[in-house]
User: Fold Aminodeoxychorismate lyase from Microbacterium aoyamense.
Amino acid sequence: MTWRFALVIQPAGVDDDRRDFSATFRTIDPAEPALSVGELSTQRGDGIFESIGVVDGHPQEVAAHLDRLAHSAEICDLPAPNLEQWRQAVARAAEHGERRGEGVIKLILSRGVEHGPAPTAWVTASAAADFTVPRTQGIRVVTLDRGYASDVPDRAPWLLLGAKTLSYAVNMAAIREAKARGADDAIFVTSDGYVLEAPTASLILKFGDRFTTPAPTGGILRGTTQQSLFDHLREEGYETAEELIPVDLLARADAAWLVSSVRLAAPVTAIDDTRIELDSGLTQAFNRYLLTPRD
Amino acid sequence: MTWRFALVIQPAGVDDDRRDFSATFRTIDPAEPALSVGELSTQRGDGIFESIGVVDGHPQEVAAHLDRLAHSAEICDLPAPNLEQWRQAVARAAEHGERRGEGVIKLILSRGVEHGPAPTAWVTASAAADFTVPRTQGIRVVTLDRGYASDVPDRAPWLLLGAKTLSYAVNMAAIREAKARGADDAIFVTSDGYVLEAPTASLILKFGDRFTTPAPTGGILRGTTQQSLFDHLREEGYETAEELIPVDLLARADAAWLVSSVRLAAPVTAIDDTRIELDSGLTQAFNRYLLTPRD
Assistant:
């Protein structure tokens, strides 16, 4: 699959209720220069994003991603996105993709060009990498201190915790640190000993027949894939919970996964020095579900 | 002054000792598209930067800024920049500027295009805004919790504290928060009550004839303007210190300034609800010194 597509969007106001936003889209060559050096996304990481998985031409959980985009915009004092416009942009990107296989559509809303009048926005789409190995053989993770105590997000909203901002240098550094330690990925923990999330994924733990994830308080991004999977698990009769999880509990999990929109469910086989059992049956069921078309 | 200039750089290795790096520079129109949407600077805030003040055609403290660029690159696992190449790029940008007035030259080193082979780099230059009002009438600041305890930077290097990364969304949000509170700027403090720095400036406090700034430990960026000013103050016979400063001490300062490369010395007239005396004589002397050509 060699799908590559990009679209620049002229952001519309939330009150713009036209039926067809095509006139606000401009298709570009994703390899060609498209952004000026004055872009605040590039100078300051000042903007927000979403990554939407695509399966056989179907963009997954679009509404949940757009809701989160709006939530991030609110936290970052960005103009509220016109969600119908973004929905049409996602549909356009998906139409230009392959009918078979997996892909990823990224939405970016930047504060715009420095001293400029308006935000800039664009959508990119491409084939996904092959995640067969992490999905079947699992990943090793290390815990890394995020540096914040668990009460910080609520009292310091300017830290933008809970927004999916373009300022992801720390998230990328955490993954490099994990790899330097011989692992594949990281789990952030608070400085007072509670589990948060992975730099680009949510954590799900299984204890007996109960599935749990760290409660999406201010410091944790609401995981669209985790929420979809928990809805499915409840339908299947399992118990699910969102709660405060002390770091000590990680080593006692019967199974663990990092879940995200594109890699989907990656079973965790080790957390720091503790081996975790890989539950192949459940992992296959998770990814089978996550690879069905979902809205 | 209408100076606007931009240069894309093909980053050279540190071992490249050619005399003339002109062949690695490409002048571009700063308003035209120059970066692809695949840029990791824009997708992840994944890169580093420096802002160099320019006075009457002379770029200030270039060596100190380049040293800090190299330091940031090391913290972020970016390839070490060839400092002679960057020095020549700064000189080229300064040559294209106005001979009179103030400007700013920005250096950006990005991790490059996603899945690409090499970092991307560019330099922009433009006239500075008019900072007469903050320099003469002063600024009101509020203290904002940075969310980290003072021992965090040393034990969590993946938080990239001390590197000047492109992930500045929180710094920008802090300035918005300050303005929402009716102030002009912010001073970050640790969650355990020590003073750090402003989102884009260093803090200098005066107690009697002694000048002090928060010690540049892992959590604080070494301030090139603050260091230059402290060198000057010591030559003038003043005592200077870099130390741990409890938040309580702020209200007892005889005078205070936020200093940075382009706005230079902005006297602080209020910290939260405490009025601070504006020392006009010293402030004028500071800015007179900072506006002389410095290397």
The first strand of chain A starts at residue 4 and ends at 9. The domain at 4-127 of chain A is CATH 3.30.470.10 (D-amino Acid Aminotransferase; Chain A, domain 1). Chain A touches chain B through 54 residues (CB under 8 Å).
